[in-house]
Amino acid sequence: MRSVLFLIGLLSVMHVRSQDRDSSGTLRFMPWFFDGPLVLDEQRTLPNDEAIRISQFRFYVCHLVLHTNGHSVPIREGCHLVDADEPGSWDVDLGASASFHPDSITFELGVDSLLNVSGALGGDLDPTKGMYWAWNSGYINLKLEGSTPLGPYPKGSFELHLGGYLPPYATAQRVVLKPSKKGPLTVRVDVSELLVDVDLKGRCNVMSPGAEAVRLSRRAVSMFKIDAAP
To answer: Does residue 164 register a pLDDT over 90?
Structure first.
């Protein structure tokens, strides 16, 4: 009887440890809005009391690298598309690199010029994903759409499609994060950090490369905070 109980206890411990490994083996990008998780099509309020609804939020994480003890370990050479409407896209598998705790994490927010000129690619870079400008032959790095009662457009809608890879309007941005604790890695991606820098009462649509796309892309870096989400 004791041997049976011991075996049951051992299997339970192994199951818990297996779950711990699974949870810590990914880097999660958690869509967020100011003080809670982002829920698409739910009315929320910005810090400045402006009411808003987010209907779509998507962005590219490219060239993801973990850094520890002076060594750099590439995780994704290509690009990973994070879509707030698809929770399965929030996690990036760290593979064998999950066994160590990184000093820092770096990636490009957006598709760099080399990938842009390589032509339409497959996987997350497939044009059917809705993140490619056929007319401009380039990728949209970040897509944020929604509505607000303040907006001047029909139904108060706004569209921020941030992209462009040619100087002086190259928009891909390098993001550097420094985890402060061990365990599962969670990056809170707070769209309110970007929206507070958008004039929702004015002509706030951005649909092509240009100075405003560059400005907002630089601001978008502030959306990423690691270890901030529960």
So the answer is: yes
Q: What is the per-residue pLDDT across 194-221, written as a single tens digit (0 to 9) for each?
A: 999 998 888 789 999 999 999 999 999 9
Residue 10 lies in a domain: no
Specify the pairing of strand 91-93 against strand 138-147.
Answer: unpaired
The count of domains in the chain is 1
Alpha helices in 146-206 (DSSP H): 192-195
Where in the sequence is the domain holding 134, given as residue range(s)?
27-226
**Average pLDDT of the segment spanning 24-46:** 93
Q: Taking a C-beta distance cutoff of 8 angstroms, is the pair 172, 206 a contact? A: no
Question: What pLDDT score was predicted for residue 184?
Answer: 83
Distance CA 29, CA 99 (A): 19
> Residue 5: inside a domain, yes or no?
no
* b/e burial code for range 171-181 (CB count within 10 A of at least 16 → b): bbbebebebee
8 Å CB contact between 140 and 162? yes
pLDDT at site 230: 52
Q: Are the C-beta atoms of 116 and 172 separated by less than 8 Å?
A: no
Residue 8 placed within a domain = no
Report CA 2 to chain centroid distance, whole Å: 50
Amino acid making up residue 26: T
